[in-house]
Fold this protein.
Amino acid sequence: MKVLRLTLKKKWYDMIASGEKKEEYREPKPYWQTRLENKDFDVIQFRNGYAKDAPTMVVGFLGMDYGLGNPEWGGGIKPVYILKLGEVFSP
């Protein structure tokens, strides 16, 4: 299984865990271009911060788009990578 590992702030982590937020955004910078473009992932493992014992969850990955995201979810100003989220497997 191919896993994409991402770190989030608490606000976004909680919204994804509750099922409210269905997309995650990343800026189109060279770092993310290298990590995301032309890659296939099965799931995304989200981590709430950088602490050694930070909570994690695994969420299904449904694909990626490029465009304006939902402003309520942190997008909407400039085009971004849009990671489409599926089922939350483990909160």
Q: What stands out?
A: The chain has one domain: 3-90. The radius of gyration is 12 Å.
